[in-house]
Amino acid sequence: MWKIILWLGLTLILLPLAGCTEASDFPGGENGSNIVLPTPHYDSRISVEQALRTRRSVRVYTLEPLVIAEVSQLLWAAQGFSHPDGQRTAPSAGALYPLEIYLLAGNVKGLQAGLYHYQPQDHMLILIDAEDKRQGLFEAALQQKAVKDAAIVCVISAVYERTTGKYGQRGIRYVHTEVGYAAQNIYLQAEALGLGTVFIGAFHEDEVKSVLQMSEEEVPLGLMPVGKKLHSDEAAP
Questions:
Q1: Selection from 23, 182, 157, 176 nearest residue 90 by Cα
Q2: Per-residue b or e along 179-211, where b marks 16 or more CB atoms closer than 10 Å to that residue's CB
Q3: Which DSSP state fits 145?
Q4: Are 130 and 104 in contact (CB under 8 A)?
Q5: Which residues are CB-neighbours of 60 under 8 A, at least 6 positions away?
């Protein structure tokens, strides 16, 4: 009898965990290595107004590597937490946060090349695949050289159901709006760091999903290669 009682107790404890959908469990990576990122800076020598004035889409980069602190700033700008209560750097309809951010690292000091998933609540990366995926993404993105040549590529995807579950089909519009928020944040943060980036929306969706090992429910919506600009003031946070 005591064995039955023990089994029932363990079942009641473990069943809720089996359905856990915390961001840290999504998506699962084959390596599962956690990389805690440096704490982001919250000020810089460049004002928002200056970044807005000088921001441009940049498709040509030097071969100079990024450093992990720069990667940290870019990811935080895209979807990082800006308040202990869970608010983020980019607004979200109903605070439902349908966006996911992936990092394809190829040339970063202090970070192994590979495919990573950004975890905003812990400001860390989960290693999905320890292989430089830029070439595969280059092929999926109609062979746009910026994707292959950049030190990193930030990929913005979405799980529509997080928003449409509350707002119905109109939620799709909200998700697309949020991609714009996150992309502009990356643009402005890159400018403040003296880096160049461009938003790319032309790609084969299924091929991008395959390269990034995305779940069935995810949809890739934007690629943002980032690298050192050929001519830069090397502004720092």
A1: 182
A2: bebbbbbbbbbbbbbbbbbbbbeebeeebbbeb
A3: H
A4: no
A5: 146, 149, 196, 230
Angle in degrees, CA 39, 40, 43, rounded to 5? 135
Q: Are strands 124-129 and 34-36 parallel, antiparallel or unpaired?
A: antiparallel
Q: Spelled out in words, what is the top-level CATH class assigned to the domain 21-228?
A: alpha beta
User: Peptide bond preceding 16: is omega within 30 degrees of 0, i.e. cis?
Assistant: no
What distance in Å separates the CA atoms of residue 76 and residue 80, rounded to the nearest whole number? Answer: 4
Q: How do the domains of the chain map onto residue ranges? A: 21-228
Task: Check residue 35 and give its pLDDT.
Answer: 96
Q: CB 117: neighbour CB atoms within 10 A? A: 24
Q: For 78-93, how does the pLDDT look when each residue is reduced to its tens digit (9 = 90+)? A: 999 999 999 999 999 9
For the chain, residues with pLDDT lower than 50 are: 1-30, 232-237
